[in-house]
Amino acid sequence: MSATSTAVKRERPGDVIVRRLSALCELTDAETELVLKSAARQHTHPPGQFLQHEEEEPTAPKYIVSGWACRQHAMEDGRRQIYTFLLPGDPVGLHRSASTVARTSILALTDVRTVDAREIDAASAPGGDYPGLHCAVERAAQESTAFLLNQIVRIGRLTAYERIAHLVMELHYRLSMVGHANSQTIPCPLTQDVLADTLGLSTVHINRTLKQLRREGVMEIRSGKIRIQREDMLESISGFEPPKTFFEFRR
Amino acid sequence: MSATSTAVKRERPGDVIVRRLSALCELTDAETELVLKSAARQHTHPPGQFLQHEEEEPTAPKYIVSGWACRQHAMEDGRRQIYTFLLPGDPVGLHRSASTVARTSILALTDVRTVDAREIDAASAPGGDYPGLHCAVERAAQESTAFLLNQIVRIGRLTAYERIAHLVMELHYRLSMVGHANSQTIPCPLTQDVLADTLGLSTVHINRTLKQLRREGVMEIRSGKIRIQREDMLESISGFEPPKTFFEFRR
DNA sequence: CGCCGAATTGACACGGTTCAATTGAGGTGG
DNA sequence: CCACCTCAATTGAACCGTGTCAATTCGGCG
Q1: What SS3 class is residue B133?
Q2: First and final CA of chain B: distance in angstroms?
Q3: Would you say residue B5 has pLDDT above 60?
Q4: 10 Å Cβ neighbour count for A175?
Q5: CB-CB neighbors (< 8 A) of A148 in chain B
Q6: Nearest CA to B51 among B102, B120, B124, B110?
Q7: What is the DSSP letter of A96?
């Protein structure tokens, strides 16, 4: 068969959400259908725009269907800490995610397309008609907490060298889940400035540490892509372990 | 009236849980009753005991009614990172708290008394008969996430001096909520070792920074107590802000 | 009194920061 | 197709916050 005949069908906005949620819990056809239908209308946000601001009322919950954003806190004196990245398939501002109490903003790092999450949110209520959806959404929330804990270990107890390796492993894991990474390459629209504010380091030191990783043939970041050359080394440097898998795949 | 006539009634185990939950959402008499009754039987854990271990199946959910514990991760090479402290009134291992996926252990730092949380957990289901309870438990979870985010800012972007001030302010806030602190003094059974593993510093540096805070008359830690001498200074040093209060007090 | 874990201190080394300048890469208009 | 602009990446040098090691002191307790 020719290349054209195997070409993937044009992606619908909801597809990435379905991939993400199905990776966490098996979805019925009805549930898949619901997600796809509810994710029809997209909004777009240019880089630098806040999807949510710490000083303002939380907005309606969304799912990110393309692009990268971050959850961050800006201090008055200019220092900034990025808590985590929000990737395609990730929810933004779901009720339980502490958006109501914590002083955090969501900032688009690239062009970000989102869809409204209210329908999915309502359908995923516990004891409702969509137990698979409920389960998947619940697990997504648990995973995101696990990534916050990862972040604490990174900046609390790892060296700069280890921090970068650890973060890259996590990004690789998360992007693989939604089909945005192969074993060698993952897209990465992050500037060294953003990396610094994520890992609690200075831009200069990020630069030097990346240089070292490049020199040693472990990985490199070039033109918006991370090239992983020695995944085994990244793994041993970082000690990264993916969150425990959900053994039983029950709805 | 004499001192004896105003003596507080002997505390029941559930009282601290009630205080904690009522601070987050108003509880009906029936809800208070349920909490108190379900919290009758206590378990005790000596310091150094794991209430939950990252290698093992999660145990049944509990509430801490006295003593301090921490949620931590131990690395193979001996490094350790403490994520957060668990104080009287705090839940341990509730379903949504990511205990299932994240590799974290809960370690008793002092003698810890716990009570079973299963009854409260079941009663606090959304759409059940105890909406106030549901609301309070939900908010407790949101607050605990907010404290994780605080921890990321502390170790990512604050200096050693600021980190300690910030942590002390947070402890003061949390302990006040359950009536374990007055404006001057809060109990603090933490060794400098534990503080170091919490704040991503070395024990020696914790010691020196505490000395500085003491010399400057800001605060001091002595015989298991933190004495806050200049709360205004602690506040300006740390930039600590309590989580946003829940404006509407609806059930 | 004597023990033991925790706190304290000094000297020194190093990881990471800061400041300031230079280079590089992608985009735009002439 | 080149000149130009801009923002990000890169580099060097000096500095400093924090870590490490190793010893000493303190404080509570049997």
Answers
A1: helix
A2: 38
A3: no
A4: 21
A5: 145, 148-149, 152
A6: B110
A7: G
Average pLDDT over residues A26-31: 96
Q: Is A28 helix (H, G, I), strand (E, B) or coil?
A: coil
Burial of residue B152, with CB atoms counted within 10 A of its CB: 0-12 exposed, 13-18 middle, 19 or more buried: buried
Residue closest to D9 C1′ by Cα? A207
* DSSP-derived secondary structure for B148-179: HHHHHHHHHH--HHHHHHHHHHHHHHHHHHTT
pLDDT tens sequence across A196-221: 999 999 999 999 999 999 999 999 99
CA A237 – CA B147 distance, rounded (Å): 29
CB < 8 Å to B98, chain A: 141-143, 145-146, 149
Distant-in-sequence, close-in-space partners of A11: CB < 8 Å, separation ≥ 6: none
**Start-end of H helices in A25-104:** 29-38
Q: pTM for the whole thing?
A: 0.94
Q: Is A130 helix (H, G, I), strand (E, B) or coil?
A: coil
Write out the H or E segment, with its range, that includes residue B77: none
Q: Which residue has the tokens 């933004």?
A: A92
Q: Show the tokens assigned to B168.
A: 């002390």
What 3-state class would DSSP assign to B112? strand
| Residue B83: both structure tokens together | 């994520």
For A107, phi then psi, to 5°, come to -120, 130
* Host H or E run for residue A2: none
Tokens representing residue A14 in the block = 């909801």
What is the reported pLDDT for A117? 96
Compute the distance between CA of residue A209 and CA of residue A217 in angstroms, rounded to an integer: 13
Cα-only R_g, chain B: 18
Sign of CA dihedral B213, A148, A93, B121: negative
Query: Under an 8 A CB cutoff, do B101 and A151 touch?
Result: no
Q: Do A101 and B139 lie within an 8 Å CB cutoff? A: yes
What is the CA B160 to C1' C7 distance in angstroms? 18
Collect all residues of chain B within an 8 Å Cβ-Cβ radius of residue A155: 152, 155-156, 200
Q: How far apart are CA A213 and CA B68, in angstroms?
A: 41
- Answer whether B162's CB lies under 8 Å from B212's CB: no
As separate numbers, helices (DSSP H) first and strands (DSSP E) second, chain A gives 8, 11
